[in-house]
Amino acid sequence: MLVESSKKGIMVGLKTTWTLGKIIFPVTLIVALLQHTPILPWVIKLITPLMNLIGLSGDTAIPLVLGNFLNLYAAIGAILTLDLTVKEVFIVAVMLSFSHNMLIESSVAVKVGVKLWIGVAVRVGLALISAIVINLVWHGGSEIAKYGMIPAKEEEVTGWLAILLDALQKAGLGIFQLAIIVIPLMIVIQILKDLKWLAVFSKWMAPVTRMLGMKENTSTTLAAGLLFGLAYGAGVMIQAVKEDGVSKKDVTIAFVFLVACHAVVEDTLIFVPLGIPVLPLLLIRLGVAILLTLIVAFIWNRTDMAKRKEASYEHTS
Fold first, then answer.
1. DSSP strand E in 104-178: where?
2. 99 contact partners, CB below 8 Å, separation of at least 6
3. Predicted model pTM
4. pLDDT digit string (tens) for 47-78?
5. How far apart are CA 82 and CA 27, in angstroms?
6. What is the largest CA-CA distance in the chain?
7. Three-state DSSP state, 308
8. 231 neighbors 178 (Cβ within 8 angstroms)
9. Going by C-beta distance under 8 Å and a sequence separation of 6 or more, which residues neighbour residue 40?
10. pLDDT tens profile 1-22
11. Is the pLDDT confidence value at 154 over 50?
12. How far is Cα 224 from Cα 185, in angstroms, rounded to an integer?
C-alpha cells in the first residue's frame, strides 16, 4: 500500500509542481530582470513619501519594495546594508510578514480560487495598518539596530547575457526548491490519507476551523499554509480544494487567515538576524489572523443568512 500511495503522491506532486511552476518561473524571471532596470528605483522613489507618513525613513522603502517584488531574503539583505533604528526594523519586519513575495503568492491565490483583489487588499491593508498602530503605540526602539549573522553579499552581475543567465538560474532554482518541498509533502499527505490519519487530524482541528467559521475539511489547507507558506502550501491547498470538496467560501476564509499568518516557523526565524524581538512579531501575526478571520466569517455568514431569508420570502410570496 505504501508503494501505491507513494506513486500517487509523486504523480500529484509533479502535477502540482508543473501547475505552480508555470506561475513561479516567469514571475521570478521577470522580477530578477527588473532588478537591473530603472523600474525598481522608480517604485522606491514613488513610495518614499508614504514611508515618512508611517514614521519610517525613506531608506526603508528599499527593503519593502524588494520584499514585495522578490521575497523576505532579498528584503533582509537590503535591511542589513542600512542604518535603521530597532523600531524601524520591527515595523518593516511586521509589514513584510503580512505583505511579501506579492506577485507569486497573489498568482497562487488566484490558482486556489481566491479573487486577486481580495489577496492584495488584505495584505497591503494589514501591512499599512500594523505600521501605523506600532508607530503610534510604541515610543521606544530609538537605538540603532545591531545585526547579527550577516550573509555574504552577492557579486554585482553586469552585462545583459550574464543578467539573463542569472535570472534564469534564480527562476530554475525557484522551481527546484518548490519540487523538493511539494513532492515529498504530497507523498506524505497521500500516505496519511490512505492510512486514514488525515481524517483523525481533521477531527482534531475541527473545533479550530469551526471557531474560525470554516468546515473541518479545510484543516489540511490551513495546516499546509501555516507550516509551509502560501507558495509551497498552495500545492496542498489546490489538492484539498479538488479532493476534499473545500467550498469557495471556506478556501477564501482560510486564505484570509493565511495571508496574515503563514509559514510561521520560517517567516519568524528569518528575522532573528535583525536583532528584533521575534515573539511579539509572531503573536501580532497570529492575533491579527484570528481576529480578521472571525470578522470576515461573521460578515460572510450574516450576508448568506440575509440572502437565504430573502430567497425564502420571495419563494413563499
1. none
2. 67, 68, 123, 124, 126, 127
3. 0.72
4. 888 888 888 988 898 889 888 987 787 788 77
5. 27
6. 74
7. helix
8. yes
9. 34, 65, 66, 69
10. 788 888 888 888 888 778 777 7
11. yes
12. 9
Quote the CA–CA distance of 279 and 272 in Å, as a whole number: 10
Please work out, in degrees rounded to the nearest 5, the angle formed at the alpha carbon of residue 273 by the alpha carbons of 271 and 277: 55
Name the residue type at position 6.
Answer: S
* 144, β-bridge pairs: 85
- Give the residue from 270, 276, 281 showing the smallest Cα distance to 77: 270
Place of cell 520591527: 90
Residue 112: partners with Cβ closer than 8 Å, 6 or more residues away? 234, 237, 238, 241, 251, 255
* C-alpha neighbours within 13 Å on the C-beta side of residue 156: 3
**Residue 237, burial from CB neighbour count under 10 angstroms (0-12, 13-18, 19+):** buried
Report the candidate in 121, 127, 123, 108 with the shortest Cα–Cα distance to residue 251: 108
What count of residues does the chain have? 317
Distance CA 46, CA 31 (A): 18
Q: Which residue has the cell 413563499?
A: 316
